[in-house]
Design goal:
By secondary structure, the chain is an alpha/beta fold. The protein contains 14 helices and 23 strands.
Length: about 500
């Protein structure tokens, strides 16, 4: 580990690009404070770089894993103990609730200015991760000197109205994260996503706050690293991000655009998983990552998969979106009193639909046994070099698989209802004909609503854990907003 010093006016010991990934212990002098930080260099000139800012009463060590994961993705970072925190205490120590406090010094603007001047940093690919009070410091710095390319804000509770307005107008990528039982800013943060147009993730971190989320939710750091890599241009070959919404609702995403499948179903159906209200509001209003170039697909018009009013709201909110739905679902859309003007909606019959950035082919796969007969289609999506198969609620006879015309080399991802993994014959058919590299298991019950058959297997949680332990190519999402970045692993 090497050491260097930065002063307020200039770099006394300049940073140098390393020939490989290296961690440097830096002492950074600003306004009398001697700030201690760890800078990870990735061995390339003008590489993407991220400034990591902890919460009040926190320290830089919360970001150790995230810094390593960023480096693996070709992104450098600086994690810093802010004034009065961690090892940066030469002028005093921050004590929560102490009215005397320590000298108030906002060092974030100066840190960002210095990072932008470093030869190893690409100023156009700069990101910031902040939590709690440091969210406003990061936003204020952007208002003064210009915003970075991407921001991750964990439990930001101190954003001013000026910063909120600036965030919305900045054009930067913004991600808000909270825990499901966030103690301080839960309701406010959920409305903030709508006000700013930012993405909102709800982590699996119980009541953790700000940078503590990284310690409480082991999936948070890899997920944030992937999100930053995609926004800062270091995702390599186009990555496929699969986000679970509820029931069979998913979003497929690459840098080319997004595909929503069975994601817009409004209030849903009693006894089936639903998209929770804050996330649903952002989804139906095309906020944040749910906007832009989007293809909307529905496999069938059952209420836990499709709601005409929800789809119409989305299409009205996102003029860049197009939709492909089965014929009876399309009739429901056009029967609405106020269909979205100019919306492009096509029948999901057995045809291919090309939109320039994405191609989808509707497959004639009937719904499984049901009392409420509906038109049903599965979809083969080709997005940025990826192939994904979503089969809806089908239970296809073995002979019918041969008629679908699936790629001989197989698909990258198969999105299937859970019963395909409960039945050995159905699973064998799926693997033999679709040849999926990854399988995503959908249509799971809402929490605490196991069926009698599932209870005989020990319950949904026990069965899915055992399933994933047997198959390293199977993912069972358990919470709305959970996602996976799909890689190009060989078969």
């Amino acid at each position: 580990m090497t050491r260097s010093v930065m002063t307020l006016a200039l770099l006394l010991v300049p940073f140098t690009a390393a020939s490989q990934v290296a961690t440097n212990r830096d002492t950074i002098e600003i306004a009398g404070w001697r700030l201690i930080g760890d800078r990870v260099s990735v061995g390339a000139a003008r590489a993407p770089f991220v400034l990591l800012l902890h919460k009040a009463a926190g320290n830089r060590f919360a970001f150790a894993e995230l810094a390593t994961l960023l480096a693996e993705r070709g992104i450098g970072s600086l994690r810093i103990d802010l004034p009065g925190h961690g090892q940066s205490t030469n002028l005093g120590t921050f004590v929560p609730g102490d009215p005397a406090g320590i000298p108030e010094t906002d060092v974030v603007p100066e840190l960002l200015r210095r990072l932008r001047r470093l030869p190893e940093v690409d100023p156009a690919s700069l990101g910031v991760v902040a939590g709690s009070y440091t969210a406003e410091l990061a936003a204020r710095a952007g208002r003064v000197d210009g915003f970075a390319a991407a921001y991750v804000m964990m439990s930001p509770g101190s954003l001013s109205d000026s910063s909120i307005a600036a965030i919305r107008a900045s054009g930067a990528a913004w991600l808000l994260i909270r825990s499901p039982n966030e103690r301080f800013v839960r309701a406010w943060l959920d409305t903030l996503a709508s006000r700013t147009g930012a993405e909102l993730w709800i982590s699996d971190a119980n009541a953790a706050h700000a940078s503590d989320i990284l310690l409480a939710d082991r999936a948070a750091a890899p997920r944030i690293a992937d999100w930053l890599a995609a926004r800062l241009g270091r995702s390599g070959s186009p990555a496929l991000d699969v986000t679970y919404l509820a029931n069979e609702g998913v979003m497929l995403e690459t840098s080319a655009g997004r595909v929503l499948i069975d994601a817009l179903f409004g209030d849903g159906l009693e006894g089936y998983a639903r998209v929770e209200r804050p996330l649903r509001d952002s989804l139906e209003r095309a906020r944040g990552r749910f906007g832009g170039r989007v293809l909307v697909l529905a496999t069938h018009a059952h209420r836990d998969h499709f709601d005409a009013a929800a789809v119409a709201r989305y299409l009205a909110a996102n003029p860049a979106a197009v939709a492909v739905v089965p014929p009876d679902a399309r009739r429901r859309l056009t029967a609405l009193s106020s269909p979205p003007p100019g919306a492009q909606v096509r029948d999901g019959d057995s045809a291919s639909h090309a939109f320039g950035w994405v191609t989808v082919r509707a497959l004639g796969m009937p719904h499984g046994s049901t009392r409420n007969r509906v038109d049903h289609a599965a979809y083969l999506v080709e997005l940025d070099g990826w192939t994904a198969l979503h089969i809806g609620d089908t239970q296809l006879p073995p002979i019918a698989w041969d008629t679908l015309g699936l790629p001989a080399s197989g698909v990258d991802v198969a999105l299937v209802p859970y019963w395909y993994l409960m039945n050995a014959a159905l699973e064998a058919q799926l693997r033999a004909h679709a040849k999926p590299r990854r399988i995503v298991v959908l249509h799971g019950p809402p929490a605490g609503a196991d069926s009698e058959g599932m209870r005989r297997l020990g319950g949904w949680q026990a069965w899915t854990r055992e399933l994933e332990s047997r198959h390293d190519d199977v993912w069972v999402p358990r919470a709305a907003g959970e996602h996976r970045m799909i890689d190009r692993s060989p078969r």
